[in-house]
Amino acid sequence: MIDQLKTLESTLIQIRKQYQQKTEELANLKNKPQVDPSQIDALTSKLAAATKERDSLKSNLNELDRRYQSLAEAHHLIGEEQDKLQQQLDALEAQNKALKEQNAKLAHQNDQLHEKNCIAAERTEIVMQRLTQIDQIEE
């Protein structure tokens, strides 16, 4: 039995040594991970591709921003031009209204003058008839 205990003790010591070694190996691996060169190359390639794509997208964004600024400026200028044209339209509409009112007044005056002209023509005819009668009587 003593031999068995000694064998058991020796087995325990070996297991403890193996446990200690494995613990140290694990700690070393945690502190200093192994590097796979193919993984590093793959990740470096991915990083380069992502950087290139980011730069391309950034360039596209800058181009789109420049175009947006240009369109915004053009929109602003069109808005100003539209405001000027609207002011001109308003002025022309006011002028047109004034001319229509003046035309209506002139048409009314024309109608009145036409009436007076007709009355004057009738009176002139009457006067001419009377003068003719007077001339005929005197003869």
What's a concise summary of this model?
The chain is built from two helices and no strands.
Q: What are the salient characteristics of this protein?
A:
139 residues; mainly alpha; 2 helices; rod-shaped
Describe the secondary-structure layout.
Blueprint: H1 2-31, H2 37-138
Q: Tell me the Rg in angstroms.
A: 57 Å
- Pick out the low-confidence regions: none
* Beta-strand content estimate: under 5%
Series of H and E elements: HH
The portion of residues assigned to helices is: over 70%
The class by helix and strand makeup works out as: mainly alpha
**Tally of separate helices:** 2
Mean pLDDT: 91
- Globular, elongated, flat, extended or rod-shaped: what is the shape? rod-shaped
Task: Please report the total strand number as a whole number.
Answer: 0
Could you describe the largest sheet, including whether it forms a barrel?
none
What would you say this structure looks like, in words?
The protein is an all-alpha fold and 139 residues long. It has one domain (2-25, 49-138). The chain contains 2 helices and no strands. The chain has helices at 2-31, 37-138. The longest helix is centred in the middle third of the chain and has 102 residues, at 37-138. It starts with a helix and ends with a helix.
